[in-house]
Automatic annotation (TrEMBL):
GO molecular function: 3'-5' DNA helicase activity; ATP binding; DNA binding; hydrolase activity
Any single GO BP term: double-strand break repair
Alphabetical keyword list: ATP-binding, DNA-binding, Nucleotide-binding
Classification via SUPFAM superfamilies: P-loop containing nucleoside triphosphate hydrolases, Winged helix' DNA-binding domain
Pfam family, one: ResIII
InterPro entries per the UniProt record, alphabetical: Helicase/UvrB_N, Helicase_ATP-bd, P-loop_NTPase, PriA_3primeBD, PriA_3primeBD_sf, WH_DNA-bd_sf
Domain Helicase ATP-binding, first and last residues per copy: 263-349
Database matches in PANTHER family: PRIMOSOMAL PROTEIN N (PTHR30580)
Keyword GTP-binding: no
Protein name per the record: Helicase ATP-binding domain-containing protein
Length: 349
């Protein structure tokens, strides 16, 4: 993040220099105010690609980079109003300017507020309130702060496991849980389902018809452990997809696989056209060639002509390659798109 005039703008660091490379003495170097990502958002190859795109299509590099980043990883701006006035200043202003005084009073009572929140409290429109806020800011009675946060973030869920060996848990259950049948029920459930631990706390509480308070009581007794685990938002249900193994190929498929395989091994990019009616086995050729590519620690991109064909295609590829598949299309939620993009960026897919 860097300041431009009276606003803060989001940007991308594309290079690091030992000293400023500015020939025009009229230019001013500004400091970066904040860094939003711990890891680089773009690889070196993507920076090169977007730089070429900007030159070829006569656009700015920033516009090309924006196209390369899904909306889910971009940030949204949030302005909050922070009170800096003293009690005496507020009391004096109440007598001279009622609306300004009401604004400061609301900030005193509720702390930092957004413009929309503040407008509702003083029963004014956000647009009409901005002029009042500008006056208060000019008097140094408030501070307008700008925060940036991603459109989407990683999703976490609470999972539960036993904090001690089963033998120790059973020994303590008789003496410590005689008067806590709900806590005992949770422990019985965890012990009987030990092989599938950790288990989602939501699923556990639903199964045992107990509350989070009961679970937290067990945690305080050091009988269970609560873990925060990242949840990957896949746009498919893995439980509904059966794992498949490579099929035996007919002579035409064998010839196609061999021809494409030779080009891959020789590192000679070529275009191949598989000719065949629906159900003739073209997809199996794709799957076996992609398996070869993945064994070389490389990746493959599958383009589908229509979103409506996505479910059946995803089913075939996830069934063969499991969670190493990522799906990107326009009907994903921001959360799904964020997780799928992260899978590709990290090399998981």
């Amino acid at each position: 993040m860097a300041s431009f005039g009276s606003s803060i703008r989001e940007g991308v660091i594309v290079n690091l220099l030992d000293k400023p490379n500015v020939d025009n003495p009229g230019f001013k170097i500004k400091a970066i105010t904040d860094c939003l990502d711990i890891e680089p958002a773009f690889s070196g190859s993507i920076l090169k690609l977007t730089s070429w795109v900007s030159r070829y299509y006569l656009s700015s590099w920033g516009e090309a980079l924006k196209c390369a980043a899904p909306a889910a990883i971009r940030t949204k701006q949030r302005q909050t109003i922070h009170l800096t006035a003293t009690k005496d200043e507020i009391e004096k202003l109440k007598r001279r300017a009622k609306l300004q005084g009401r604004v400061l009073t609301e900030l005193t009572n509720d702390g930092d507020l957004t413009i929309n929140q503040l407008a509702k409290r003083v029963k004014k429109s956000s647009s009409s309130l901005r002029s009042v806020l500008a006056l208060l800011q000019g008097k140094k009675l408030i501070d307008i702060r700008v925060n940036f946060r991603p459109n989407s973030q990683k999703k976490y869920a609470t999972f539960v496991t036993l904090a001690k060996p089963i033998s120790e848990i059973k020994q303590g259950m008789t003496s410590t849980l005689q008067r806590a049948p709900k806590q005992a029920e949770i422990l019985h459930n965890l012990i009987s389902g030990y092989n599938r631990l950790p288990i989602s706390s939501a699923e556990l509480l639903k199964t045992t018809n107990t509350s989070l308070t009961t679970l937290q009581a067990l945690e305080r007794k050091n009988l269970v452990e609560l873990q925060s685990i990242e949840i990957i938002r896949n746009p498919w249900d893995s439980k509904l997809i059966e794992k498949t193994e490579p099929l035996s190929l007919n002579s035409d498929q064998i010839n196609a696989v061999a021809e494409i395989h030779r080009a891959i091994e020789a590192n000679l990019p070529q275009t191949f056209l598989l000719h065949g009616v629906t159900g003739s086995g073209k997809t199996e050729v794709y799957l076996q060639i992609i398996a070869t590519v993945l064994n070389k620690k490389e990746g493959a991109i599958i383009l589908i002509p229509e979103i409506s064909l996505t479910p059946q295609t995803v089913s075939r590829f996830v069934g063969r390659f499991g969670e190493n598949v990522a799906v990107l299309h326009s009907r994903l939620s921001d959360g799904e798109r964020y997780d799928q993009w992260q899978k590709v960026r990290s090399g998981e897919a």
